[in-house]
Amino acid sequence: MKAVEITEGVYWVGAIDWNIRDYHGYTLPGTTYNAYLIVGDRIALIDSAYPGFDNQIIERVRSVVDPTKIDYLIANHVEKDHSGTLPALTNLLPGVPVYCTANGKQGLSKHYDTTNWNFTQVKSGDTLGLGKGKTLAFLEAPLLHWPDSMFTYLAEEEILFPNDAFGQHIACSQRFDDELGREESLKHAQKFFANLIIPLAPRVLKKLDEVGKLGIAIRMIAPSHGVIWRSYVGDVVNSYVNWSNGISKEKVTIVYDTMHSSTNAMANAIAEGIMEEEVEVKVYILKDGKADGTHRSNIVPDVLDSKAVVVGSPTLQNQMYPTVADFLCYLKGLEPGKLAQKKLGFAFGSHGGKGGTIKLIMADMKAAGIDVINEGFEVYYKPDDKELERCTEMGRDIARRVKSL
Ligand code: FEO
Asked: Which residue from 251, 248, 305 is spatially nearest to 278, judged by alpha carbons?
């Protein structure tokens, strides 16, 4: 196994997980757990990998230096996908200083037996000189992604190691954004942001402002997942600012499930109305969430990107369909409607009894921050032509409102 030199004396020594398809409720085409070796007069290893990937980290380090020569371990984040190799490394390197935040020490001690670990707690502004023109500076970044998170900055090389921030879940042989391609890199970064970062958006903006005020140059961003940003640093930073502000397109995303195709017919009629107004529409049927394009984590990037979200469900035992409940539960956690730019929406569906399910849907949409614009539309059993025309008109209406935002 080989390391990849990203600049003189700085190496990617991460692990590639080709097989992972689900990670805390997120579907993904594999991922990488990036770790970085910084070689000065002394040697530091930034981050590690999920438990079970010890070999990849240690062997990639060995392709550069004897792993027992590592002088410092830097733990930017406690979550197991970045700390899981620390037990093996601290066994290999007895007494090695483990640099992390105070919350990091607490979190690592809850995850592992750290009795014999030699912690060094750091806070924003602390530095660690490695010699040969390599100085690491630390910046606490609480809740990006967990309370313990911090960024590490390699000052002379102007490389930011922000752990999860700016990451992408993708397993590939490319290590850099320009090798994977701008569009593909940003697409995976957007999916990562939509599924993990939306609720943290105010903190992202605050941290970017803080970094801006420090006046430090950033030539590369080396996150803990996916490719390293070196050619499109400005693009991904600008995208993070836009996504964090909820900047979205004149676009409506319709998400629904169906039992006997009534809600399906309503969804199609709403989509027709939106298209008549020449507004982009994406239509997602949830089904079992397993088929491609039907899983909640593949839908939320379009929700992030849309000015309106329309949700439909048949009634099942006086409740919304379980797949719709799953989607809305996820949306309530992410709260995309609470980003600075608001999102409009309404609910629709069919029933075979007394109805009322759309009220449950609307309550969840409101909890996700979505501005529900009307009382929704629920039909008895199957929509007739008049009811389908009403659906189309509701589509036209939301499209017109989207254009006027
Ligand atoms: Fe990639 Fe918060 O862990």
From this structure: 251
Q: What are phi and psi of 310, to 5 degrees?
A: -120, 130
Instruction: Find the radius of gyration of the CA atoms of the chain.
Output: 24
Two structure tokens written together for 2: 């080989």
CB 169 near ligand 1, within 6 Å = no
Q: Kindly report the protein residue whose alpha carbon is nearest to atom 1 of ligand 1.
A: 164
d(CA 381, CA 379): 6
Instruction: Give φ, ψ of 154 to 5 degrees.
Output: -95, 100
Structure tokens at 189: 């970064």
pLDDT tens track for 179-225: 999 999 999 999 999 999 999 999 999 999 998 888 889 999 999 99
> Amino acid letter at 287?
K
226 CA from centroid of ligand 1 (Å): 12
Q: Is 63 helix (H, G, I), strand (E, B) or coil?
A: coil
Phi and psi at residue 175, to the nearest 5°: -110, -15
- Verify whether ligand 1 is closer than 6 Å to residue 164 (CB atom): yes
